[in-house]
Design a protein that fits this description.
The chain has 163 residues and is α+β, with helices and mostly antiparallel strands. It has one domain. It has 4 helices and 4 strands. A 4-stranded antiparallel beta sheet has the order 1-2-3-4. The longest helix has 28 residues. It is globular and about 65 Å long. The two termini are 31 Å apart.
Length: 163
């Protein structure tokens, strides 16, 4: 039981540290005005600051409560996911991995929001004029983890044989 928890929280910690490392590198080496093309017409590295939630929602809000509300809801979600992971021994591998990815990503973005009041995004994908909202490693892990949880939820469960 403890070993399963250690692996789950360990994966969340790795996600958190990789997220912090990549954001620190971007903040130190890429200005807000820089665009580093990785795959022309498809993928750039940029430096964007998001004061809102996912995909820039609420980014333009001028409310003094925006950051407080986002921190409170994020912290509550973090506590919920950490609590679910505490029962990792009772969960299947996909669920544990999905929850760990969500926990690490949420912790990375929550850290940014608490310390700086914003989240650094830097991965920009696009095709011509169609741009996906800029995101970061934490966002990627949250989406991947959520998809894993959804797939596990949709997967048909074996029913015990009736005797």
């Amino acid at each position: 039981m403890v070993d399963c928890r250690v692996r789950a929280y360990g994966l969340a910690a790795v996600v958190f540290f990789v997220d912090r490392l990549t954001k620190s590198l971007i903040e130190a080496h890429v200005s807000i005005f820089d665009v580093h093309t990785v795959i022309p017409g498809f993928f750039d590295i940029v430096h964007s600051q998001n004061r809102g939630v996912a995909f820039g929602l609420m980014n333009d809000s001028t409310s003094a409560w925006r950051t407080v509300v986002l921190v409170v809801f994020s912290a509550a979600a973090l506590v919920l996911v950490a609590g679910l992971l505490w029962r990792a021994a009772r969960l299947d591998r996909w669920t544990v991995t999905g929850l760990a990815l969500v926990l690490g990503g949420a912790a990375g973005n929550l850290f940014d929001r608490i310390v700086w009041g914003r989240v650094t995004d830097f991965l920009e994908f696009y095709i011509r004029d169609l741009h996906w909202p800029t995101f970061n490693v934490a966002d990627s892990c949250i989406v991947i983890g959520s998809c894993m949880l959804l797939l596990e939820l949709l997967k048909s469960k074996r029913q015990p044989a009736q005797t």
